[in-house]
From TrEMBL:
This is SseB protein N-terminal domain-containing protein. It holds the Pfam family SseB. InterPro entries: SseB_N. It comes from the Bacteria. Residues 35-156 form the SseB protein N-terminal domain.
Amino acid sequence: MARVSGPLAPQDRFAGRVIPTSAFGDDTGEAPEALAAVLAAYAAGEADDADVLAVLGESRLLVPVVAVLGEVEVDENGLAHDKSSDMATVLVTGRDGRRALLAFTGQEALTRWRADARPVPVATQLAAASALQDGAAAIVVDIAGPVRFVVPGDDLGALARGWELRRVAGGHAWIGVEAE
């Protein structure tokens, strides 16, 4: 049996590995039309929270990831250099101490907030589930505009379960099948 030493050839680096495809492989980074329209109507007072939540549940969001410094090393001249860094989603803490996951409708809105953040397109259900898993009490959509929208507690949980928001007499209700 022959042994190979040294680095692998570029074409062999990923041999045997499976790289999953994204459900949003052809995403252009534009805000979904229906979501942009309902948020504009919401800002104009022509739509309410329920209208936005209903569309949001069927939409894609961009969750930003940013580099977070892991370790720093100091060279012989006393200068600090990054030794390692990680990528992380962004949670913000409100004045009341509750945390929220940031998400954006499109690349333009994300860039308004922070141009160096990398967008990860995900279904709103996954963003909501991730927020809950990270201990967040809400998702803040488009924190830097054009229209900021907050998805709080009960609505966040319903979106994470994949429930649908429906209008009923006198208001609205989340409809879904609870897992046994």
